[in-house]
Amino acid sequence: MKPGWEAAELAISAAFDAAWRVNGALRTPVHWPADRSFAMPAGEPWVRLSIQWGEGRRVSVGPALDRHTGVVTVQVFTPAGSGNAVNSELCDAAAEALADRRLPCEGGRVAFGTASLRVIGDDRGGGPWRQQNVSVPFRRDKS
């Protein structure tokens, strides 16, 4: 059995991977958490998935139930100067992949809340990317 955090991260990554596929292929390249070998593609859209853990607390003592909160962020990158349509379409798909879902994981479950969007925009330093971030809060209940 995997420890609670690792099991939850694997469940989140697997759910995103399944939802991000169209006819078996990924919509875009994905920079997965802890993937140190990822190479940004030149001139094509890509996304980065990150999982940030928040605070935990015991919500029940009989039987014990621990709840940990966090946020999954999908950073969506499209070529700068290419407009907003493709980036927004990918953001919609990222939100649909996780928002309001419930996932089983070893020793508990992961429940997602409502997605939110943060527009970063084109790289102000003249860089190659336009960025928007989709953030989805979650909680992991572990008994």
Task: Outline the secondary-structure elements.
Layout: H1 4-19, E1 21-22, E2 25-26, E3 30-31, E4 46-61, E5 64-79, H2 85-98, E6 102-105, E7 108-112, E8 116-122, E9 129-142
Parallel strand pairs: 3-4
Antiparallel strand pairs: 1-2, 4-5, 5-9, 6-7, 7-9, 8-9
Please characterize this protein's 3D structure.
The chain is of the alpha+beta class and about 140 residues long. It is built from two helices and nine strands; from the N terminus they run H-E-E-E-E-E-H-E-E-E-E. Strands 3, 4, 5, 6, 7, 8 and 9 form a seven-stranded mixed sheet that branches. It has a two-stranded antiparallel ribbon with strand order 1-2. A hairpin with a 2-residue loop joins strand 4 and strand 5. Helix 1 crosses helix 2. It is elongated. The model has no long low-confidence stretch (mean pLDDT about 90).
